[in-house]
Design a protein that fits this description.
It is built from 14 helices and 16 strands. The chain has 448 residues and is an alpha/beta fold. It folds into 3 domains: 221 residues, Spore Coat Polysaccharide Biosynthesis Protein SpsA, Chain A (Alpha-Beta Complex); 93 residues, no CATH class; 112 residues, NAD(P)-binding Rossmann-like Domain (Rossmann fold, 3-Layer(aba) Sandwich). The longest helix has 26 residues.
Length: 448
């Protein structure tokens, strides 16, 4: 029997499965089995899985009769022989010491589960990545922010959103049953609710353990049917509310609202109102209205802006969509202007701080490789290479790239930077300002 069983639900992940399995086989912790639950891949994934299985006896390929993330994970949990169980999505990757660190912490604490933190990432056209943190909660939010009694902490349910950056006692996780609905979309929600309402002890550590892919276009995050999936999953999870204190009901429906808002932002970033799912939006809005009338979800349970958004949802999902479009559109417009300004010319980003690197990574994510350098007055920044482009002084840059076009990426010093470029002979028409922020959600925007 292995100490850890790792479950990978899989279907048509040919582009990503090698990176995923490679990160698992590269673990410093070796006493583990890998159960890959494949639901009938036809894109070459299955052949790769068989090769891995033939090369390493720790890897088992199990064929699922259903194309259902929940069913596949449940099957993996049933087959797992390890003392502890981890779950990894087939398009993600894990840190080299993930299971060594989590296993050691699990043994020391005797917790029902242990979790680290993750980083979401997008892959750029030059092969590099841009990433951002995913943390269950801020350090110190729950006392020392380390050891928690989940079943007595309903607010945790609205903050800890993922199964995969954790390690679970096998005898604990085998009591949990995921929703076996078709496809792969939000089935971990019901599992998380069961876990957090039943766990007597959990440990959260500030250690990066997981890398969550954001650029898989087939992932559920981009699916227009997301509102239907959310509605179905909460209907399933509702059964586990029975007998729980009132605080859990509030956390449950607050989470449903926050889940809904996440999808609304994705829809707004797509630039299209998903008319085909309006009925699902209205159904969720009706449930949230009923819970407000019942006193389960009140103004005090939300921030001021969230409460305003909920009221707007009750009036009209389309009005809420329009509000979010107005939030996203300035950033989209600014990026479109950058793309038009550069055209097929060499581009220089003046400013190597957050604004500058954000603009550069947005361009690289969309396939634009014409940024050839950064320039910056900060001597400490000069000489560095950021996403394949070297940081030089403005004087060096103007001399080396006399026909380049410039993007001034600064919120506070743009006027002074423009004057500096003009003084060195750069034409005004070759200069564009970018000061529209660094909203990570713009990676989901469709710029046409």
């Amino acid at each position: 029997m292995y100490k850890i069983s790792i479950i990978i639900p899989c279907l048509n992940m040919d582009n990503y499965i090698e990176q995923c399995i490679g990160s698992i086989l590269n673990q410093t912790f070796r006493d583990l089995e890998v159960l890959i639950i494949d639901a009938g891949s036809i894109d070459g994934t299955l052949e790769k899985l068989q090769r891995y299985s033939n090369q390493d006896e720790r890897i088992q390929v199990i064929h699922s009769q259903k194309k259902s993330y929940g069913y596949q994970v449940n099957l993996g949990i049933t087959r797992a022989t390890g003392t502890y169980i981890g779950i990894v999505d087939a398009d993600d990757e894990i840190a080299k010491d993930m299971y060594e660190v989590l296993y050691r912490t699990a043994l020391e604490s005797d917790a029902d589960y242990v979790k680290g933190v993750a980083r979401g990432f997008y892959t750029l056209c030059n092969g590099e990545r841009v990433d951002f943190p995913i943390m269950p909660f801020e350090s110190g939010e729950y006392g020392n922010g380390i050891e928690i009694i989940p079943q007595k902490t309903p607010s945790l349910f609205t903050k800890d959103n993922f199964l995969w950056y954790g390690l679970y006692k096998s005898n604990f996780l085998k009591q949990i049953k995921l929703h076996e609905s078709p496809g792969a979309a939000f089935q971990d929600l019901g599992a998380l609710f069961q876990i957090q309402t039943r766990a007597k002890k959990a440990v959260y550590i500030d250690k990066l353990v997981y890398y969550y892919r954001q650029d898989n276009v087939n992932a559920s995050i981009h699916n227009p049917k997301g509102f239907r999936f959310i509605a179905d999953e909460y209907i399933y999870a509702k059964q586990f509310l029975a007998g729980l204190p009132q605080e859990w009901y509030t956390a449950f429906y607050r989470k449903q609202f926050l889940h809904f808002m996440d999808r609304m932002y994705v829809m707004a970033a797509s630039g299209n109102f998903w008319e085909n799912t309006l009925a699902d939006m209205l159904a969720i809005a009706k449930i949230l209205r009923e819970k407000n009338v019942e006193g389960v979800l009140n103004k005090k349970d939300l921030t001021e802006e969230q409460w305003e958004d909920l009221q707007l949802l009750w009036e009209s999902p389309y009005q809420l969509y329009q509000k979010y479009r107005k939030v996203i559109e300035p950033g989209e417009t600014a990026l479109k202007n950058v793309i038009r300004h550069l055209g097929d010319q060499q581009g220089i980003i003046f400013g190597s701080g957050n604004f500058g690197t954000f603009v550069h990574t947005q361009l690289l994510y969309r396939g634009y490789r014409n940024v050839v350098a950064y320039c910056d007055n900060n001597i400490k920044a000069q000489g560095k290479t950021l996403y394949g482009a070297k940081v030089r002084s403005p004087q060096q840059t103007v001399q080396k790239f006399p026909y380049a076009r410039y993007i001034i990426a600064s919120k506070h010093y743009a006027r002074e930077m423009q004057k500096q470029l003009e003084y060195m002979g750069v034409e005004v028409n070759d200069i564009l300002h970018y000061s529209s922020g660094t909203d990570i959600r713009l990676f989901n925007s469709v710029l046409v």
